[in-house]
Backbone:
C-alpha cells in the first residue's frame, strides 16, 4: 500500500465518509450535552437531524458511479449509498419509536441515543467496506454498541441474560471471523477485496488456505445474519432487548452484514464458488426459521424466528451467485427493513408487561384492532407483506431473490422457499386473527387491562403509517428501485471501478 500521497488525498476523500462523519460527530455532541445537561430532551432530536441530513446526502449519491476512497478501503456511491440509506432510515425510524418507549420505562438516557449513533457508524462502514480491516472495524463498532443496548434494563434478569448471550456468542463468532481473514490474507497477500480475487493461488496449499479462510469467514457472517445453525442467540436476544432496539438490530445490523457479505462474494470470491454452501445454509435457515415460529406464543419471539427465515430468503438470492441475485438481495433488504421496523414498532406500542414484552403473549392482544385501529391496520399490512402477499413490497422482494435463483438453476431451492412462505402464512395470519377477529372477552390474561396499554405519540404513530404506505409503494412501483439496484452490479461499470 503506497502511503506517499495519503495525506494529500485525505481532504479529497472526506465526502466519501460524510454520513459516517455527521453521525459520529452527532454521537460525540450527544455525549457532551448529556455530560452537562443530563438526559436533555434535545438529544434524540439531534440524532434525528443528523440521520436525516446523512440520508439526504446518500440519496444524492445513488446515481454516482461506484468508486473507492481512503486507499481503497471504503466504497462510495452506488450500492454503498443504497445500503447506507437503508441503515440511516432504519436508525431514524428507531429513534422516533424509541423516545416514547424509553420515557415510559423512565430510561430516556442520552447515552442510549449516542450508542445508537455509534452502532450506525459501524454499520455504515461495514456496508461500504472494500477491505477486510474495514469490515472488521465496522463489525466490531456495530456489535459492541448493540451488546450494551441489549442489556439496557440492567435490573431485569431477561435483559441481562440476553446481553450476556449476545456478547459471549458474538465474541466467539468474531474469533472465526478473524481467523478466516488471517487465512485469506496468508493465501493472497492482500486485504483488499478485489485484489483477493485477482491473486494467483498457484499451489494446492494456498488454495486450501484461501478456501479454509472463506469457510471460517462465512461462519462469522452467518452468525451476524442469524443463519442456521448459528441462529441460537436470536430468539433470546430479540425477546429480552427493548423492543424498538430489537427492530433496529433485526434490520440495520442485518442489512449492513448482508451488504458486506455481498461485497465479499462479488469482489473477493471468484466465480461464485461459495454458492453451493450458501444454498444449503439458505434451505436449512428457511425451514428451521419458519417451523420454529409456528409454535411461538410471544410475538417478539415469533418475529425473531421470522427474522431467521427471512435471512434464508436473502441467502437464496446470494446463492444464485449472479448480479441479478445480488441486486435482488439489496432490494429485499430495503423491504425487510421497512416491514420489521414497523412490526416491532407496533409491538413497542402494545407492550404492557413492563418487561420489554418478554412475557406477554399474543392472545393478550385479542381485539386490539378495535381498540387501536391504526396500530391494528398497520400491523396487518406488515404481516401480509412478511408473508409475501401482493401488491405489497414483501411479494416483490421475494420475487427479486427467487427469480435469479431459478435462472441460476436453483429451482428446488426456490420451490422450498415458496413452500416455507406458505407455511409462514399460518403464524403471520394468526397475529391478524387475534388483533381483529378474537374478542378481548374470550381471553383472560392476568394483569392486563386496556388502560395498561401505552398511548402512541404522533411521531411514533406517523413513523408506522409511513412504513405501511412505503410497503405499498415498493410493491407497486418496484421497477425503479430494482433498476437502480441492478445498475450497481452492471458488469461494465463494475469492471471499471477501482
Residues:
Amino acid at each position: 500500500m503506497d502511503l506517499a500521497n495519503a495525506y494529500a488525498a485525505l481532504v479529497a476523500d472526506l465526502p466519501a465518509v460524510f454520513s459516517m462523519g455527521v453521525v459520529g460527530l452527532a454521537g460525540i455532541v450527544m455525549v457532551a450535552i448529556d455530560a452537562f445537561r443530563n438526559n436533555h430532551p434535545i438529544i434524540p432530536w439531534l440524532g434525528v437531524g443528523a440521520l436525516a441530513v446523512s440520508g439526504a446526502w446518500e440519496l444524492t449519491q445513488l446515481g454516482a458511479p461506484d468508486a473507492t476512497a481512503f486507499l481503497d478501503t471504503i466504497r462510495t456511491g452506488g450500492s454503498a449509498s443504497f445500503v447506507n440509506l437503508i441503515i440511516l432510515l432504519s436508525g431514524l425510524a428507531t429513534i422516533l419509536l424509541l423516545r416514547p418507549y424509553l420515557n415510559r420505562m423512565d430510561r430516556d438516557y442520552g447515552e442510549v441515543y449516542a450508542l445508537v449513533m455509534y452502532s450506525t457508524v459501524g454499520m455504515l462502514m461495514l456496508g461500504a467496506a472494500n477491505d477486510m480491516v474495514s469490515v472488521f472495524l465496522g463489525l466490531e463498532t456495530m456489535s459492541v454498541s448493540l451488546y450494551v443496548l441489549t442489556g439496557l434494563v440492567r435490573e431485569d434478569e431477561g435483559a441481562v441474560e440476553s446481553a450476556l448471550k449476545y456478547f459471549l456468542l458474538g465474541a466467539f463468532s468474531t474469533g472465526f471471523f478473524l481467523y478466516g481473514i488471517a487465512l485469506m490474507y496468508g493465501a493472497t497477500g492482500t486485504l483488499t477485496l478485489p485484489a483477493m480475487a485477482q491473486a494467483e493461488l498457484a499451489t494446492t496449499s494456498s488454495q486450501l488456505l484461501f478456501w479454509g479462510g472463506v469457510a471460517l469467514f462465512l461462519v462469522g457472517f452467518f452468525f451476524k445474519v442469524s443463519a442456521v445453525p448459528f441462529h441460537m442467540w436470536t430468539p433470546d436476544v430479540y425477546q429480552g432487548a427493548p423492543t424498538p432496539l430489537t427492530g433496529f438490530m433485526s434490520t440495520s445490523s442485518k442489512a449492513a452484514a448482508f451488504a458486506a457479505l455481498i461485497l465479499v462474494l462479488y469482489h473477493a470470491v471468484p466465480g461464485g464458488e461459495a454458492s453451493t454452501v450458501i444454498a444449503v445454509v439458505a434451505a436449512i435457515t428457511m425451514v428451521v426459521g419458519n417451523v420454529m415460529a409456528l409454535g411461538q406464543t410471544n410475538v417478539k419471539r415469533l418475529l425473531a424466528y421470522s427474522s431467521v427465515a427471512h435471512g434464508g430468503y436473502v441467502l437464496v438470492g446470494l446463492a444464485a451467485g449472479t448480479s441479478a441475485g445480488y441486486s435482488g438481495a439489496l432490494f429485499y433488504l430495503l423491504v425487510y427493513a421497512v416491514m420489521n421496523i414497523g412490526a416491532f414498532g407496533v409491538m413497542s406500542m402494545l407492550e404492557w408487561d413492563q418487561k420489554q414484552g418478554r412475557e406477554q403473549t399474543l392472545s393478550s392482544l385479542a381485539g386490539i384492532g378495535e381498540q387501536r385501529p391504526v396500530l391494528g391496520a398497520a400491523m396487518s399490512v406488515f404481516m401480509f407483506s412478511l408473508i409475501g402477499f401482493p401488491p405489497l413490497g414483501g411479494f416483490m422482494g421475494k420475487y427479486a431473490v427467487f427469480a435469479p435463483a431459478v435462472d441460476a438453476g436453483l429451482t428446488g431451492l426456490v420451490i422450498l422457499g415458496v413452500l416455507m412462505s406458505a407455511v409462514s402464512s399460518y403464524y403471520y395470519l394468526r397475529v391478524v386473527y387475534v388483533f381483529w377477529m378474537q374478542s378481548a372477552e374470550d381471553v383472560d390474561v392476568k394483569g392486563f387491562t386496556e388502560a395498561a396499554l401505552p398511548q402512541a405519540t404522533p411521531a411514533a404513530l406517523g413513523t408506522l403509517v409511513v412504513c405501511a404506505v412505503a410497503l405499498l409503494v415498493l410493491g407497486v412501483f418496484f421497477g425503479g428501485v430494482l433498476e437502480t439496484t441492478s445498475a450497481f452490479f452492471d458488469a461494465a461499470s463494475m469492471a471499471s471501478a477501482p
